Amino acid sequence: MRSRPVRRGGRRTAVRASVAPVLAALVVAAAGCGGDDGDDGGMPSADDYYGAMNTFCMDVTAAARAATRTSTAAAKGPAGTRVKRISTSLGTFADAAEEALAELEDAGAPERFANYQRENAAGFRRYIVTLRAAAADPDDLAKLQTRVNAIELPDPPQDITTNAKSCASFSPAG
Question: Spans of biased composition, class Polar residues (predicted)?
Answer without folding.
Answer: 159-174
